[in-house]
Amino acid sequence: MANKAKTTLPGNLSVETELVLAGRDPFRHDGFVNTPIVRGSTVLSPSVADLEGHTGRYTYGRRGNPTVESLESALTRLEGGAGVVLTPSGLSAVSIALLSVLKTGDHLLMVDSAYQPTRRICDEVLTRYGIETTYYDPLIAGDIAGLIRPNTRAIFLESPGSQSFEIQDIPAIVAAASAREIMTLMDNTWATPLFFRPHEFGVDVSIQAGTKYLSGHSDLNIGTISANERTFRRILTTHGDLGITVAPEDAFLASRGLRTMAIRLERHQQSALAVARWLSSRPEVRQVLHPGLPEHPGHALWKRDFKGASGLFSIILEPVPKRAVDAFLDSLALFGLGYSWGGYESLAIPFDCSAYRTATPWNPGGPAIRLQIGLEDPADLIADLDSGFTALAAAR
Length: 396
Hints:
- By secondary structure, the chain is α/β, with parallel strands linked by helices.
- Helix content is 36%, strand content 15%.
- It contains 13 helices and 11 strands.
- The strands form 2 sheets. It has a 7-stranded mixed beta sheet, sandwiched between helices. Strands 8-9-11-10 form a 4-stranded antiparallel beta sheet, with helices on one face.
- α7 (192-195) links the parallel β5 and β6.
């Protein structure tokens, strides 16, 4: 007897097993393990009745195909929401999610530690449509209720904060929002659904830049939006009406990355903690902003709510001139100098939040550097950073 497709998975699987199985239906594709790349725009119907009645599984390439559906299905199971849509980048996922829940005259509460391009959406796009944004202290917790106006329609969270790594009290903020029937959205790129599942905490919309850990190989741009029952229809409608689509090759690569994400994240976590602990012992380092370290101000909240930590964190150096920071970064052999993160390679960038923080000051007391710890041997990375500190000392 021929093998049959296993289209329904048991409900009690571990996340590691779900990552391997979810979204795949090999016997729908002649037994091939991975869903093939389906390229196409036109989808034929067998009759006029089928054409006009939209009876087929697919109606038009922009509205989905087997490759895209496979990834959406897997992510829906992983996120625990009502459905997922894919977008061409993490930033487009943020913008589509916001446009889905906001309209002219609405008020948005945006966390002050958000990814800087997210702020530009608020300040340069939403304002053109008559939507006002108020930035709030990421540590505000339940006191956010005092910022809610009669026209407040959404609260946007990002925890930990981009670059500065504040941990938000997500249950407290969601409780304040729920009391007023306000939508909550969260950028969950850092933790991924493996280490934090926003829907389990009552968040309506969970957003990821799949460019990072979902991809894992620094070779594609993709965004994901997961929504619960009360918001998914709005997300799906806006996504479709704006004609958003993802290339099937990118969906295929993201699906491939999904299968190994648990193993990669485990290594990112272990290596990043090893490097962070070493950095915290260095005299050149004023502070290590890694939520997994007990000395991090948000460690207790992280430990309460999160299941793990990824490979991204920041350090604050003791005061040194810019030339010394540049010498440190330029001397690194194993850390690339580049934006983004989540790939297999280690990265480093200098940053300064002070120019765009508006609700809370950014004054860390020294130059700031964000590190992405990749899949290299952490001992090699530590040796590289040690050499960098030698270069820093020589350039002071």
